[in-house]
Automatic annotation (TrEMBL):
Gene3D superfamilies: Aldehyde Dehydrogenase, Chain A, domain 1, Aldehyde Dehydrogenase, Chain A, domain 2. Signal peptide: none annotated. InterPro entries: Ald_DH/histidinol_DH, Ald_DH_C, Ald_DH_CS_CYS, Ald_DH_CS_GLU, Ald_DH_N, Aldehyde_DH_dom, Aldehyde_DH_Superfamily, Succ_semiAld_DH. Pfam families: Aldedh (PF00171). Residues 22-473 form the Aldehyde dehydrogenase domain. Keywords: Oxidoreductase. GO terms for biological process: gamma-aminobutyric acid catabolic process. It comes from the Bacteria. Belongs to the aldehyde dehydrogenase family. This is Succinate-semialdehyde dehydrogenase (NADP(+)).
């Protein structure tokens, strides 16, 4: 990668770039080489950032909505102008293929443009009053200082999906990106500053003290809203901590997505959808398919076609031409994939394709057939390039298997029976359902889950509501 002017190791607080008293290394998972040393801020540094964000909010909340929209539009244009540089940063710190990273830049930028436009449509309403001497109305106001904690697997899109609606609503933000992938967030801060973002409105605090920083962001009384994307276990802990101050929370947590293929489905379309829904970013996405449920009558045909498609996927350094799958993010992730595959095979599953590590943090794109329901991979999120195929006989059995999990983020199914499509879409316990579609997320749709997959929605008009408070006003109208 050529010199990239958007790479910095300094944190961004109150419009200033700071080095901190210590630093940590960001490592390219494909090459195991250091990309950059980044400021390792302390809890005291984060507490200071919260104070300046609160101070900035006092004035920023009075900014005209058209000015906030213009700020976001400027940021959007700069993100697209620097698409290549941003994509390269995403690839070297997360490992995903450059093709995936370029797609993420477009996807992430779309949220900035969406909320620039949506900021002008943050409507209240009038309501009939019980007496003619009164007028009743509601307005929506920005909630205040927002703490946003983002994961490593989408280091750009998860930032814009939180920061853009917060700014659109008139909030200020403390962003804590994952320590594995902070460089993309810092690059976005460089562009936000160029776009004219006022000092203290968008702050990026980097650090390795995850529990300490998380505790500060979830308990500091100046923070009114906490938005977190990550594991269910961490989300539960943050929610408990935030409860002491009754903070508004949005949590986008783990998943265990089913992908059902019925015997009346278009199998070729289902295979194409499966490749995207399972293998994007090497299976390291929260909406990645974890369980393929295939009806008996077409199990052999589907598994054969999927195996053939998976065999063509190229694994390697994401910056190399033609690579489609990069490495796992770290050894812990690699070990979990190996554990899940080994457990499934020990319990009777068959390896149709792949099934082993191939050096460093790389793992073959894998297809397992006839996986038993008691396998670990049936219950736990694998977060890796492994397609696990289970058999079912009836529609009722498929729905029961799909819903047999504490998670409820995404679900997918393929069928050409319109009646079945309605029945199954309504019966699946998930916040998002793809019907004959493996790509379900875009800025105008509400992204989020049910059960232990989270609270709240991101994207769409509902995503703006997450950063506002609804105020009811009752006017008494004096008679003349």
């Amino acid at each position: 990668m050529e010199t990239n002017e958007l790479i910095t190791g300094k944190a961004f607080v109150n419009g200033r770039w700071i080095v901190g008293t210590d630093s940590f290394e960001v490592v390219n998972p494909a090459t195991d080489t250091v990309v950059e040393n980044v400021a390792d801020l302390t809890v005291s540094d984060v507490r200071y950032a919260v104070k300046v964000a609160h101070h900035a909010w006092i004035s920023f909340k009075t900014m005209d909505v058209v000015q906030r929209a213009s700020l976001l539009e400027n940021w959007y244009r700069l993100i697209l102008e620097h698409k290549q540089e941003l994509a390269e940063i995403i690839t070297v710190e997360s490992g995903k293929s450059l093709t995936d990273s370029l797609g993420e830049v477009d996807y992430g930028a779309s949220f900035v443009l969406w909320f620039a436009e949506e900021s002008k449509r943050c409507y209240g309403e009038t309501m009939p009053a019980p007496k003619m001497s009164n007028r009743i109305l509601t307005i929506k106001q920005g909630i205040g200082v927002v703490a946003a904690i983002t994961p490593w697997n989408f280091p750009l899109a998860m930032v814009t999906r939180k920061v853009a609606p917060a700014i659109a609503a008139g909030c200020t933000v403390i962003l804590r990106p994952a320590s594995q992938t902070p460089l993309t967030a810092l690059a976005l801060a460089i562009l936000a500053e160029k776009a004219g973002c006022p000092a203290g409105v968008f702050n990026v605090v980097t650090g390795t003290d995850s529990s300490g920083i998380g505790y500060e962001l979830s308990t500091n009384p100046l923070i009114r809203k906490l938005s977190f994307t990550g594991s269910t276990s961490v989300g539960k802990q943050l929610m408990k901590q935030a409860a002491d101050h009754i903070k508004k929370v949005s949590l986008e947590l783990g998943g265990n997505a089913p992908f059902i293929v019925f015997e009346d489905a278009d199998i070729e379309a289902a295979v194409q959808g499966a490749i995207f829904a399972k293998f994007r970013n090497g299976g390291q996405t929260c909406v990645a398919v974890n369980r393929f449920l295939i009806q008996d009558a077409i199990f052999d045909e589907f598994s054969q076609r999927l195996m053939e498609a998976v065999a063509t996927l190229v694994v390697g350094n994401g910056l190399d031409e033609g690579v489609q799958l990069g490495p796992l993010i770290n050894k812990k992730g690699l070990d979990k994939v190996h554990k899940h595959v080994t457990d499934a095979v020990d319990k009777g599953a068959r390896i149709l394709q792949g099934g082993k590590a191939i050096g460093g943090l790389f793992y073959e794109a894998t297809v397992l057939a006839d996986v038993p329901v008691n396998a670990l991979i049936a219950k736990e999120e694998t977060f890796g390039p492994v397609a696990s195929l289970f058999r079912f006989k009836t529609e009722e059995e498929a729905i029961q298997l799909a819903n047999n999990t504490e998670f409820g983020l995404a679900a997918y199914f393929y069928s050409n029976d319109v009646h079945r499509c309605w029945r199954v879409a309504e019966a699946l316990e998930a916040g998002m359902v793809g019907v004959n579609e493996g790509q379900i997320s875009f800025a105008g749709a509400p992204f989020g889950g049910i059960k232990e997959s989270g609270i709240g929605r991101e994207g769409s008009r509902y995503g703006l509501d997450e950063y506002t408070e609804l105020k009811y006003i009752n006017f008494g109208v004096a008679k003349r």
